[in-house]
Design brief:
Largest sheet: 3 strands, antiparallel
CATH class: Mainly Alpha
Number of domains: 1
Number of helices: 12
CATH architecture: Orthogonal Bundle
Bound molecules: benzoyl coenzyme A, fe (iii) ion
Structural class: mainly alpha
Distance between the termini: 36 Å
Shape: globular
Strand order of the largest sheet: 2-1-5
Radius of gyration: 23 Å
Number of strands: 5
Length: 474
């Protein structure tokens, strides 16, 4: 299970033992680097960045920290250790040994899941590529770059599976992953949220809090897969994912902290005044939150989905923490609550649990998201400011599933088109909000200095002081 760093492509899958595969991946590697040079973080290529690199796949001590030029980052293929006894824990193949090769009858679905997962990784790097130019500190810049290189590695993780297990069409899909572009009209990324812009740092922190958390839950579901190489690769990805969500949660928390300090100091909640003082008012933070939350919960797919049922029954994608459920793991007779719209009203309904697995995962996700928002509220409470952030109702601003196209307030009330038009500006970040936030985004790149709109961090990276030179420009 040790990682071979002597190879051109670092790995713990004995790549050297499969010359054909090694050659194919070594052919893809320069294409990946071309993509990174063109679409990776702008203006970053010659900087030395204090990054962590995986040195072992074991939960303890897998990271090594050092200065790296990002194009020289050792992207590689790391799978969590195999468990020789592992059985399929759900669906029609329940109790059978996990698959080490792709079962023919599930090949197309498996490839589609891997491609969809893989597509989000470079998409997020593309979405974030301009942010380095407006970093609020070297600490934050380094965190952005860390997230970016690891999303690049997540792409490698999926490309390995495509090359190793899907032959020629896998190689073609791996190439297409470098050709689609976030937001491109002709060749966009596959899922909606990955074609939105991430134009400023508040959007970045919201994205890593909310959207990387979709990554966590999808990866948890794939970590249950009966296709063992997918389960093992997603298990290792989850270890990297934790840091991405931390960047988001602490980032938004520091923005809130700073705003509340200025509110308390100047005894004001006047938005114009706070904006003039150079901090982001809490209602604007709420509108950003509403946007990122609603766009992200769309990523779980339709509430009732025959695809989801098929993925589960065929053993490809489980529930988050599948083995913790005390039920039959077949779900043939079970039901699950879903919301329905009847005569323009939201009504509690029910669907076969097998078909409602997207909704189940979305609900798991919502619970996890709400917990962090509560932690943000505690930051506000501690400063004595009477304001509470809330997570909108899951019907709000949906574009996928039966709620799409209907109009709901953040509290879940059905609203008329005219009320939506009148209130939308209170509910979702407006062009004006975004222009204001953009106006704060100057570049702060001296060690130990922080932009006025964000508090310094409270936790160190690898025990380094907060005025550490996390990025050295050359
Ligand atoms: N946008 O039956 P349904 C991450 C399509 S994030 C556009 O409900 P299904 C990361 C759908 O494809 C984790 N289209 O779909 C985070 C289908 O199309 P067709 C990413 C959408 O298949 C931050 C149709 O609508 N991983 O890692 O049950 C930074 C019917 O829908 C969307 C995964 O997603 C959408 N939002 O569910 C970096 C895991 N939603 O067949 C990285 C793999 C649905 O009609 N993916 N559609 O043409 C899956 O498991 C499933 O594809 C989904 C969709 C859960 C996403
Ligand atoms: Fe990722
Ligand atoms: Fe991530």
């Amino acid at each position: 299970m040790t990682i071979t760093y002597a190879d051109k492509i670092p790995n713990n899958v004995d790549l050297a033992g499969d010359k054909g595969l090694q050659r194919a991946l070594e052919h893809w590697q320069p294409e990946f680097l071309r993509w990174w040079t063109e679409m990776g973080p702008e203006g970053s290529h010659s900087a030395d960045v204090y990054l962590r690199t995986a040195t072992s796949v074991h939960p303890s001590g897998w990271a090594h920290f050092d200065y790296v030029k990002m194009p020289e980052y050792r992207w590689g293929i790391f799978l969590s250790p195999a468990d020789g006894e592992r059985k399929i824990n759900f669906g029609d193949h329940l109790g059978e040994p996990v698959w080490q090769e792709v079962p023919g009858e599930h090949r197309a679905n498996l490839r589609r899941i891997i491609v969809t997962q893989g597509d989000t990784e470079p998409a997020s790097v593309e979405q974030q590529r301009h942010l380095g130019l407006t970093c609020p500190s070297l600490y934050d810049l380094r965190n952005l770059f860390q997230v970016n290189v690891e999303e690049g590695r997540h792409l490698w993780a999926m490309v390995y599976l495509l090359h190793r297990y899907f032959g020629r069409d896998g190689r073609e899909e791996a190439e297409a992953l470098l050709q689609r572009r976030s937001g491109d009209r002709d060749n966009p990324r596959i899922l909606g949220a990955f074609n939105e812009r991430t134009p400023d740092w508040l959007a970045f922190f919201m994205f890593t809090y909310f959207t990387d958390r979709d990554g966590k839950f999808q990866l948890l579901a794939l970590a249950e897969s009966g296709f063992d190489p997918l389960a093992r690769t997603t298990r290792f990805m989850l270890m990297e994912e934790a840091h991405h969500m931390y960047v988001g949660e602490s980032g938004v928390g520091r923005v809130i902290q700073r705003t509340c300090e200025v509110m308390a100091e100047h005894k004001t909640d006047d938005i114009a005044r706070l904006r003039a003082l150079g901090v982001i008012d809490l209602p604007t933070i709420q509108r950003y939150l509403n946007f990122h939350f609603s766009v992200t919960i769309d990523l779980f797919g339709a509430d009732v989905s025959s695809n989801a049922a098929t993925f589960y029954s065929s053993g490809l994608k489980g529930r988050c923490a599948e083995t913790k459920f005390g039920d039959d793991h077949l779900l043939r007779d079970a039901v699950y609550p879903v919301v329905q719209v009847i005569d323009g009203r939201l009504v509690a309904g029910e669907a076969p649990a097998l078909n409602a697995l997207n909704e189940k995962l979305r609900d798991d996700y919502i619970k996890d998201s709400v917990a962090g928002v509560e932690r943000w509220n505690r930051i506000i409470q501690k400063t004595g400011i009477p304001f509470e952030l809330t997570v909108p109702h899951k019907a709000f601003n949906r574009k996928i599933g039966p709620l799409a196209g209907l109009k709901f307030a953040p509290d879940g009330r059905v609203v008329s088109d005219s009320e939506w038009t009148a209130k939308q500006r209170e509910w979702l970040a407006t062009e004006e909000d975004r222009a204001f936030v953009a106006s704060l985004m100057g570049r702060v790149a001296a060690p130990g200095a922080y932009a006025n709109w964000i508090s310094p961090p409270t936790l160190a990276i690898n025990k380094q002081p907060s005025d550490f030179e996390f990025v050295r420009f050359n």
